[in-house]
Design a protein that fits this description.
Layout lengths: L2 H10 L23 E3 L13 E5 L8 E2 L19 E5 L2 E2 L1 E5 L3 E5 L7 E9 L2 E2 L3 E5 L5 E2 L20 E3 L17 E7 L27 E4 L2 E2 L5 E6 L7 E6 L10 E5 L2 E2 L11
Antiparallel strand pairs: 1-2, 2-7, 3-6, 4-5, 4-8, 6-7, 8-9, 8-10, 11-13, 12-13, 13-17, 14-15, 14-18, 16-17, 18-19
Length: 279
């Protein structure tokens, strides 16, 4: 599968897109603080400005719609999709939307917000759900992962694998098509914080923008931080608002299928995610 389609599928939704017949919700949107998560790893309480989040619940939209090229006006993501009349508010400002359905919303946290307490709620026409108090972090690193069952070892055992490619940006890594020590691989993440230049509104970035000077990003392989010189680039992924890429030179000492974690500003991505590598 071309990487662009794979990434769009991960960002838009973890389910197939479709076009539902519009139906008026019988009740107000229902969701909880625990059902608002980082879209990369489904962890609650892990959002930062300019990160992609997911809300799970019921009565979240009239119908199902994913962002299309025609929805992107002036290079910016929309704040409303299809006939759903769904809006996500963060500190009373609308968030950009990647996907809406009656049970799931994928959204972009406004990049201009500051870390700290915020109020989040979903509105569908005149209905609105609970106003929830959440806290945005300076960074909330999350690695996108391949769908369950798509990353299997030769033994048949399933492995939780990060979405990663070779330097060509297209060759997706799996245990049957792994990287080698010394290769440059590209990792795909969200929640890595501010960049230079900064993200602007909900504009799709058209050029590289590295993390701000002094950002203390670390990549851990089997619990050991790689040398900072091995991180050749960390910043926005051109063409995808809220998506970050990390260009990593794998140390020659890299073992087989190491666990990979990102660490930034005191926050660490979840354990148990592996990078397909064959020494």
């Amino acid at each position: 599968m071309p990487l662009a389609l794979l990434l769009l599928g991960l960002i838009v939704a973890r389910c197939a897109l479709g076009a539902d017949v519009a139906a008026v919700p019988r009740d107000a949107p229902v969701y909880t603080a625990l059902s608002i998560v980082n879209a990369a790893d489904n962890q609650s309480g892990a959002l930062a400005p300019n990160s992609i989040g997911t809300i799970y619940g019921v009565n979240l939209a009239y119908s199902t719609a994913g962002v299309t090229e025609s929805d992107v006006q002036g290079g910016s993501l929309p704040v409303m999709l299809g006939a759903s009349e769904t809006t996500v508010f963060i500190d009373y400002s609308p968030a950009a939307l990647y996907y809406v359905s009656p049970t799931q919303i994928n959204f972009l946290v406004p990049p201009n917000l500051l870390p700290g307490p915020v109020i989040v709620y979903v509105a569908v026409d005149s209905w609105h759900g609970s106003l929830l108090n959440l806290t945005l972090a300076r960074a909330a690193p999350g690695l996108f992962q391949l769908a369950p069952g798509t990353c299997q070892l030769p033994s048949g055992a399933d492995l939780e694998c990060a979405v990663a490619t070779l330097a060509d940006g297209w060759s997706v890594l799996t245990p049957s098509s792994p990287a080698r020590p010394g290769d440059i691989v590209i990792l795909w993440a969200t929640g890595l914080g501010q960049t230079t230049p900064p993200a602007y509104n909900f504009q799709l970035p058209t050029a590289a923008a590295p993390l701000i000077a002094g950002a203390n990003l670390e990549v851990l392989l089997d619990g050991v931080a790689v040398p900072s010189s091995a991180i050749e680039y960390a910043g926005v992924a051109p063409g995808y608002a809220g998506l970050y890429q990390i260009n990593l030179l794998l140390p020659l000492s890299t073992g087989a299928n190491p666990e990979i974690r990102l660490q930034l500003d005191g926050a660490t991505s979840i354990p148990g995610v592996h990078l397909p590598v064959s020494p």
